[in-house]
Write a structure and sequence with these properties.
By secondary structure, this protein is mostly helical. Helix content is 74%, strand content 0%. It is elongated.
């Protein structure tokens, strides 16, 4: 069985469009990261676009990658459809179950290799183009405060000197001052029907 898988793997990797498939997928991956880079440079402050943000988008790419399984299946199973038969392999004495299982194992290995290469290219290009951007202080005050709140939880309210918390504390103080002024206005305007 292992020899059959190795033979199917060898045939799939030696196909002429195998490197073209890898190059196309790699360029599309780098293009997606480059689009994030353009968003980061053209409109800074909207979202924290860095490596963590890019990696949080990677599950969306996995859904699109399901279509690659059809291409991987074509890499392995195309010879069968070219000759319209399994006669040569079956006449050699190999059971059909072993033939199909070895081909599906080869498809799985080819797609696993492609997935590993694309994840590495995506992470490396995101690191090079987008950087880490872990500090939320470069963001707008509300976004940095929310991001810090997600990371630290209740402890966020006690970080009084943090750059993302300071604008929120100032906004809270302004709101309390406005509420106090409104209360004073209402108290004196409703005095004896005047």
């Amino acid at each position: 069985m292992l020899r059959s898988i190795r033979a199917e793997w060898y045939k799939a990797v030696r196909r002429p469009y195998f490197p073209i498939l890898f190059l196309t997928c790699t360029l599309l991956t780098v293009g997606a990261v480059y689009c994030l880079y353009l968003i980061k440079t053209q409109s800074p402050g909207i979202t924290p676009i860095g490596l963590p943000f890019a990696l949080s988008l990677s599950p969306l790419g996995m859904v699109l990658g399901l279509w690659l399984v059809a291409i991987g299946g074509d890499l392995v199973f195309s010879e069968q459809y070219k000759h319209h038969t399994l006669k040569n392999e079956v006449s050699f004495g190999i059971p059909r179950a072993r033939i199909y299982l070895s081909r599906w194992a080869a498809v799985f290995l080819v797609m696993l290799l492609l997935y590993a290469v694309l994840v590495a290219v995506y992470a490396l290009s995101a690191l090079l183009l987008l950087g880490l951007d872990r500090d939320p202080s470069g963001l707008t005050s509300g976004g940095g405060f929310l991001l810090l709140g997600y990371r630290r939880g209740r402890q966020t309210m006690y970080l009084l000197s943090h750059t993302a918390v300071q604008p929120m504390l100032a906004a809270r103080q302004n709101l309390l001052n406005e509420a106090h002024l409104l209360k004073e206005f209402l108290r004196f305007s409703d005095n004896d029907g005047a």
